[in-house]
Amino acid sequence: MSDLIPVTLIPGDGIGPEIIASTLEILETIKAPFQWDKQLAGMAAVDASGDPLPQETIDSIHKTGLALKGPLTTPVGKGFRSINVTLRKEFGLYANVRPTRTLIPGGRFENVDIVLVRENLEGFYAAMEHYIPVGDDPKAIATCAGYTSRTECRRIVKYAFDYAVKNNRKKVTLVHKANILKELCGLFLEEGRKVAKEYEGKIACEERIVDACAMELVLKPETYDVIVTTNLFGDILSDLTSGLIGGLGMPPGANIGEKAAMFEAVHGSAPDIAGKNMANPLAVLRASAMMLEYVNRVDLAKRIESAIEKVVVHDKVRTKDLGGNASTSDMTAALKQAIA
Ligand code: NAD
């Protein structure tokens, strides 16, 4: 019987296939124990079958419980629901985990090391939106009803505290807007405080209103450790934390559920640089390192992180977004050499 772990592999759209190919070369070099089941989603799937999320892809993830995914293009406009949101719902991927750490010295901030845990299923992303016509204007008023549940609030905050314990973190900050959204965010804060009590003496807990948090993140980001927040605030703040370390090319993301987990880059399909051998492959490579940790191969995850540090910090092999002129293939070759 094979010891390989089956994983659904979705190359994705735009720069997706290039950065996934780069990651696969590096995983092969370290003999990562994965067996890939390649499937389509996004515009690649629309082109092949007319369906942005084919049943075969869903069936594969149900079978493997693990996916490594390139970014997917979501066409703007009517008729297309975000495939990412659909995947999170289908597999109950309730926790979105995005670590952001300063790697290259000399940037705006030296000591950023923040893990943002975002609730992935509720809030305004599960919203019921509609228009109310007034007179002859069918779109005179737009409404949106989001929701949060006690169970999900508790589960996401507990995930953040457990993550903090497991990863030797010191503090969790509950980020909310309960001063205005007294029930929607109030419930999150109420449950968050209860969970925090269970970890008293082990992990410190702070609370921040989201607007104050945004300001502090750009003034003194080094004071933040683990942040846990609701869906929309998490979406916005995780791009902000990516910006603190110089952009979207680096941070990975994990979507964790009870029965499945999906790993991806935080960034999108970058159509402006697709097919030009310019994309930075590090975010999706780091996502694969998170997947290695998830399957208890911390040893291999650490090898990837050390190789990235050697190539990017010491040897200064950097793609354009990091201020260098290396191509995707230059960086892949350098990483393979560093990790072999
Ligand atoms: P984007 O993240 O694709 O690009 C924003 C900017 O960052 C662009 O200038 C791009 O060139 C640059 N960039 C992103 N990743 C890079 C990388 N690895 N190396 C170098 N530069 C990089 O965001 P966007 O342009 O707003 O979105 C494009 C598409 O991606 C949209 O259809 C959007 O819906 C989708 N998207 C998908 C995901 C996902 O699948 N998880 C996430 C975000 C956006």
Keywords for this entry:
binds nicotinamide-adenine-dinucleotide; alpha/beta; 23% strand; 340 residues
Bound molecules: nicotinamide-adenine-dinucleotide
Instruction: Find the count of extended strands (DSSP E, 2+ residues).
Output: 12
Helicity level, as a percent range? 40-55%
Number of helices: 11
Query: Radius of gyration, rounded?
Result: 20 Å
Side-by-side strand order of the widest sheet = 2-1-3-12-11-4-5-10-8-9
Judged by helices, strands and strand pairing, the structural class is alpha/beta
Could you state the order of secondary-structure elements as H and E? Answer: EHEHHEHEEEEHEHEHEHEEHHH
- Sheet with most strands: 10 strands, mixed
Low-confidence parts lasting 5 or more residues at pLDDT below 50? none
Give the N-terminus to C-terminus distance in angstroms. Answer: 27 Å
Describe the structure.
The longest helix is centred in the middle third of the chain and has 17 residues, at 150-166. With 340 residues, this protein is an alpha/beta fold. A ten-stranded mixed β-sheet has the order 2-1-3-12-11-4-5-10-8-9, with helices on both faces. Helix 1 packs parallel to helix 11 (328-339), helix 5 (150-166) runs parallel beside helix 6 (184-198) and helix 7 (210-219) packs parallel to helix 8 (231-244). It contains eleven helices and twelve strands. It is globular, with a radius of gyration of 20 Å. Bound molecules: nicotinamide-adenine-dinucleotide (NAD). Nicotinamide-adenine-dinucleotide (NAD) is lined by residues 15, 71-74, 84, 248-249, 264, 267-273, 279-280, 283, 321.
